[in-house]
Specification:
2 copies of one chain form a homodimer.
Chain A (H helix, E strand, L loop, with lengths): L1 H25 L3 H17 L1 H18 L3 H7 L3 H16 L7 E6 L5 E8 L2 E6 L4 H12 L3 E5 L5 H15 L9 E3 L5 H9 L6 E5 L2 H10 L12 E5 L5 H13 L8 E7 H17 L3 E4 L1 H4 L6 E2 L2 H5 L6 E7 L2 H11 L4 E5 L3 H10 L4 E6 L16 E3 L7 E3 L5 E12 L2
Chain lengths: 421, 421
């Protein structure tokens, strides 16, 4: 128990140091921040062999643990992947700084000047799983937006994260940035995590990035405000008036381009009339792309080899080549299904009817809604928003891809001359 | 136990109905919403006697319960107070609707059109205490911004709230607005409250408005995202270079104008040099305005009748004519004290030195920061922001006074022509 207490104290000390460092960071110049980002990119490239060696240890343990190939793939670093994230850092260095702007400004009748200015959030707690690239991406976005960051990566990536973190620390001491702006939380016990989730005084926001169970536990246990990311049970509604070629292209792209990501489609909702007229083309497409179908009775009767979907299928983010198929007789029925099972991430409608698409876009409640386009575009880079720290599926503060602006808040500044009310 | 289960189910049914009603509300026209707001104002005025009679019962029970006079004052309705909040409704009817706007819009190189539009949050859970005016104010803001609202007022105001709610329901059935858009939660047991706090599926945001203990319990128990409001342990820093007349005017206004509100000052942090030069004027002012002083040793030695402040005083939102006084020898020391005890609401500095005020405004972390002005201006109306549903002391989503815009979120709408990634 003494160990746990010492450990708990350690996290609290880390958070307090982060808060102080954030304050010092907030008054540094953009140039100082950009220099640090560029230097960090240089240093990570120079130390790529060390990072890859550490990563090999994680992979070795991962194989012993029996992780899936998909999981090991997310965990694996290569020279190319490291250079991908260093070029990401260089991109972030080029983006405009999102803090210190006067967003609006007015003078009251009594002469009091009111300004609303953008400021950093303060201290970000980043909680993530297998991907070591988050250690670099999140560090870059936090630094640029003037925030301190506490990194709590998954234990499966601990050697990789430590190697990357070592480079970050060695770099920061050579710059104007206080090194406590970026800290790695190494303890993995329950008490430490609980503390991280509830240190409202010292941590301004938690960003969980990972699977449904990680996000669920953060949402349920945290009192620190959260930017919820990622779970995407996305739907593609194929309307009665959907163009066949567009439909099949989009279905294949949304399902098979990268099945393991959150913006992939998990359920196709198909209007019965469309299904009847286009079943042969659909069956061929599904077969050609090795898509495993879990269908309701009406669709299963038409699609050879389809399994029968149950309640769980409608709610599942497969993250694989599995696809649920639900048939409907109206756009309203499709919307009702999405209301019930969607995770408010990305939803698409294929139709040539503008009224139908308008109804869908007005009534579906999600971060991103597509008409005649693939859900795969829900991504900061793909939508032209710049680097992203995650995709918000909540409604408060940020919705959809979150970049630098989403890591800021505001302050009202009032300047008077003895003004009283 | 059966009763509790029936009761729990009732709240869930209310929330589901609210969600459906919100969807129907979201496609109504601005005119229909404004007509409903105006009609509601008319009807509340017509039924003012019924409302006042119901309020008398709350007051009677309140006296039996032994509530403080300040509490009873917040609970009390008069003809004038009712007409105040109906004129508030008419004001809200005149404000522009904050939803349906295209906030930004661009076309990607591949031709995909991207739009970011403002949309209602959905269902708001409003949790409040003694003030029956919140029942009307929150209803008006919710309707105008296209949101449904579940009202959970304090049991001490239940007769008043029910009488007001009756008028709301009788009015809504005469309009295009589904009456389930506004619902009163009458059950007061623990299970019902727990459900309200955790129905993430059906409720989009909880807004607690009331004392520190109410807000604490919501923050600690809720999994539904929160817009935290109101606790204001506000400070007035009187710098070495503070103008005496401005200082005393602002101190009196910020402490005594309405001591029971969240933007009143609770602690004066005084530079020792200023105190030494201006003690006579300060002592006279404090005495003339019946301000009870809880001071640190150095200030207590100078101010006759001052009690000695302890740790608790620095952290207390007195909401009375009590004032804590802390002495410092630099602006940095003042900022450190605010960092430790402030609630990130409103903080003020009085100084003629621009560099000192800039440092204070840059480094103090709060929703509203004042230079040579009273903290009493932190209010939607006073700052020219229109009606407010509360003052946010959190950093995510909204900071400071929250009006109609803060009751909205966004959606990305992408329009393609078969676009795939």
């Amino acid at each position: 128990m003494v160990l746990l207490r010492e450990d708990s104290t350690k996290i609290e000390i880390q958070a307090i140091k982060a808060k102080k460092a954030a304050k010092r960071l907030s008054i540094l110049s953009t140039e100082e921040k950009n220099q640090a980002l560029t230097l960090l990119a240089d240093q990570l490239e120079a130390k790529v062999e060390d990072i890859l060696k550490a990563n090999e240890i994680d992979i070795k343990y991962g194989r012993i643990e029996g992780y899936s190939e998909a999981y090991l793939d997310r965990l694996t670093l290569t020279r190319e992947r490291v250079f991908d994230f260093t070029s990401g850092l260089r991109e972030v260095a080029k983006l405009p700084v999102p803090v210190g702007d006067t967003l609006s400004k007015w003078t009251l009748d009594n002469g009091l000047l009111v300004k609303k200015v953008s400021v950093p959030l303060g201290v970000i707690g980043m909680i993530y799983e297998a991907r070591p690239n988050v250690t670099v991406d999140a560090t870059g976005l936090a630094l640029k937006s003037g925030n301190a960051i506490l990194l709590k990566g998954g234990s499966s990536a601990i050697f990789s994260n430590k190697a990357i973190f070592k480079v970050i620390q060695e770099t920061l001491v050579k710059t104007a940035i206080p090194k406590e702006v970026v800290q790695l939380i190494e303890s993995t016990d329950r008490t430490a995590t609980q503390q991280l989730f509830t240190m409202k005084e010292h941590i301004d926001v938690l960003i969980p990035r990972g699977g449904a169970s990680l996000i669920y536990s953060v949402v349920n246990e945290a009192t620190v405000p959260i930017l919820e990311t990622g779970v995407g049970n996305c739907h593609l509604y194929i309307d009665r008036e959907a163009d066949v070629e567009k439909t099949l292209n989009i279905l294949v792209n949304a399902k098979t381009d990268r099945p393991a990501v959150c913006n992939a489609v998990e359920t196709a909702i198909i209007h019965l009339d469309w299904l009847e007229h286009n079943k042969q083309a659909l069956i061929k497409t599904l077969k050609d792309h090795n898509i495993s179908v879990h269908a309701d009775k009406k669709a299963a009767a038409v699609i050879p080899g389809a399994g029968l979907a149950n309640e769980e299928d409608w709610a599942t983010e497969y993250l694989s080549l599995d696809l649920a198929i639900k048939t409907v007789t109206s756009v309203e029925e499709a919307i009702e299904h999405i209301d019930k099972y969607g995770t408010k991430h990305s939803e698409a409608i294929i139709t040539e009817n503008r009224k139908t698409s308008k109804k869908f876009m007005d009534l579906v409640d999600a971060a991103a809604i597509y008409h005649n386009a693939s859900t795969r575009f829900t991504d900061g880079g793909a939508l032209g928003l710049g680097a992203e720290i995650g995709i918000s599926t909540q409604k408060l503060h940020a919705r959809g891809p979150m970049g630098l602006a989403e890591l800021t808040t505001t302050k009202y500044i009032m300047i008077g001359n003895g003004h009283v009310r």
